[in-house]
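INTERNAL AUDIT FORM
Audit reference: QA-55
Scope: verify that the stored structure record matches its stored sequence.
Auditor: D.O.
Record contents follow.
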Amino acid sequence: MRRLRRHVSTVVLVVLLPVLFVAGIWLGGHSDYLPGPVRDAFVADSDGRLYEEAMDLIERDYYRKVDRDRLLDTSLDSAVDSLHDRFSTYFSPKAYAQFQESTSGQFEGVGMSVEQVERGLRILTVFDKSPAQRAGLRAGDLITAVDGRAIRGMSSNEATSLIKGEAGTRVKLTVVSRGRTREVVLRRERVEVPVVQSSIERERGRKIAHVRLASFTSGAHGEVRAAVRKALDQGAEGIVLDLRDNGGGLLNEAVLVSSIFVPEGTIVSTRGRSRPERTYEATGGAISAKIPVVVLVNRESASASEIVTGALQDHDRAEVVGTRTFGKGVFQEVERLSNGGALDITVGEYFTPDGRNLGGGGVKEGKGIAPDIAAADNPRSKPDEALEKALATVAGGPQGA
């Protein structure tokens, strides 16, 4: 009987193998019939094999020698570009290392902050004692090429990665300033970003703290809190939190900066297709609610800047002075890749405490935050008219305690 069972099993196996083989081929072309998890694994593996096959063919048969790593970077770049989302980026290993430096508040470059525009990069801020300042670059100048390579159409991250580089090396920028084009050669240096700058101003006989935050890099909240505490110890009776030209940064830093002024309650909530809804609450330790606060913003105040502005506005903790903000209603997460690079991709939308989404639906630019008091600085005049309006607004508020 044992021998008979073994013989029957062998016959069944011989019959089943061709059937299973044919079924496997058929399912390979009709993966929709598979259960979800099985289908995903099947198709993902098939996609991976197809990509490797194409890469192998190019590497083997292309008439010139190719760099496989560069092919990979280019293909990942193109995949992200196909999303038509200017906020999503693929970082090559080198670019990711530079990105990590920039979010830490230090990097090797020429010392300026920029924004992406159609023709290239517009300079927003030139840092004191930097190579950019010594070369005579100014806010408003337009950079159109780096080392002779046009940057029109490049993402901000891609273009700035060309400008940054090892300290001591040189970079040539093509700059348009007041209608005139010139080329400037700068020597890169180790640059420490002045994340927070603060001063005590006098308005209507009262001391007002002017605290300017350049970006929401790691540890920024600690610098803001220290500047606010020092100003209050020096007798400041109100605070202007200046977020002009601040394009954002880390979400957790936005929550922590908001918590300096908002004692309790929701700061921001987020949700996305593959992310559970999450609500971020004030962390405690806020300054006295009797101290008047103004948030000063402009069109370049975006992302984390809008989270802070929206939180203080919705909680009636501050008046907003300036112009309408950028209008970004989505947030990104950086996800590491096995090659040492990373994807910085949009994973969800964020909402202010009152439930406002500041974007225009998805990754479209939206209405942003409308100021309570409109004010704009005239770059051609020496006085900072918007700051003056913000200081006057604080000085007209209730007495501090």
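Auditor finding: record pair retrieved intact. The chain is about 35% helix and 25% strand.
Action required: none
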